[in-house]
Amino acid sequence: MEMIVRAVDVGSGNTKFITGIAGAEIRCSSFPSVAYPSSGESTHWPASERRKTVCIPVGPLFYEVGPDVSLAADTFRAKQLHDDYTDTPEYMALLRGALSFMKVPHIDLLIVGLPVALFTLKKAALEKAMAGSHSVGGGKTVTVGKALAIAQPQGALVHYAAEHEKMATIGNEQSLVVDPGSRTFDWLVTRGMRLVQKQSSSINRGMSDVLRLLAAEISKDVGTPYRDYDAIDLALRTGKAPVIFQKPYDMKKHLPLAESVAQQAVSTMRQWIETPESIQNIILVGGGAFLFKKAVKAAFPKHRIHEVKEPMFANVRGFQLAGLNYATSAMAVGRDRGQGEVA
Fold first, then answer.
1. How is domain 5-152+314-337 classified at the CATH fold level?
2. HEC assignment per residue over the chain
3. What is the pTM (predicted TM-score) of this model?
4. For 103-120, how does the pLDDT look when each residue is reduced to its tens digit (9 = 90+)?
């Protein structure tokens, strides 16, 4: 019997998850990593107010999560921007929200991700917390047979190798995966698929720092507090001016400031890389890849910087591939032992 394998990557900006597999296509979806607490479950709204969210019970509270979470009544957007975020009820609500949107009642193997700097500290506890039965609201539950945690950029490496048909050769190569996310800027140095721990890490210097810095500059410019981070993010990605006080606001003068954050992060990473001349693959992924590309190229001018399609989903697609490979190996071992489950 084929095992059900799924992957979730709960990031500080977006929660990414696998919705299904069709042939070689790994289908993904996402929603903002925002969880609004309430004291009761409000899963039924008038037809005019219906939104694509679910209310997830965690402890004594319910947390509304999903693609339309911005329509929730509370406008305060608390972000779990700290190293213990995987221990928070908000993290569990986001994870369970992803399970709910997958629409499968049981998952044999669930793959989840961690920032590089937290990987050895949080791996065992996170795997234990993810296994078992999860209430996903509306009286429904999803059971997880086994969970595996992977360093987030390691998923991107697996995805890159599969996308570029390098699975057979990358095992003999040194690679650097650069993953600028919302909260953290992660990088991973590998020999083959094995992590070189002393050259891999993460720092809290991601896209959220860029957005806060630009918001502060815009606030000084317009003379009133401005905190529409989503509008700033969209403007950076599309080049289209945000509308502030009914007028397009020219953000071009702030771009050097945004790029300075990327330069700071990449400069820190560069100090960890002992032998850059030996690196054969530099892979740039993550939701902030578009802004950090210039700084990465400046730090490694003699290298080609590889990118992947839909860089925001690179990690979670790699998680899925790694999980499928693990399940295949485990089932083969199980058959040898006369068993059919994951060991």
1. Nucleotidyltransferase; domain 5 (3.30.420)
2. CCCCEEEEEECCCEEEEEEEEECCEEEEEEEECCCEEECCCCCCCCHHHCCCCEEEEECCEEEEECCCHHHCCCCCCCCCCCCCHHHCHHHHHHHHHHHHHHCCCEEEEEEEEECHHHHHHHHHHHHHHHCEEEECCCCCEEEEEEEEEEEHHHHHHHHHHHHCCCCCCHHHCEEEEEEECCCCEEEEEEECCEECHHHCEEECCCHHHHHHHHHHHHHHHHCCCCCCHHHHHHHHHHCCCCEECCEECCCHHHHHHHHHHHHHHHHHHHHHCCCHHHCCEEEECCCCHHHHHHHHHHHCCCCCEEECCCHHHHHHHHHHHHHHHHHHHHHHHHHHHCCCCCC
3. 0.84
4. 999 999 999 999 888 898
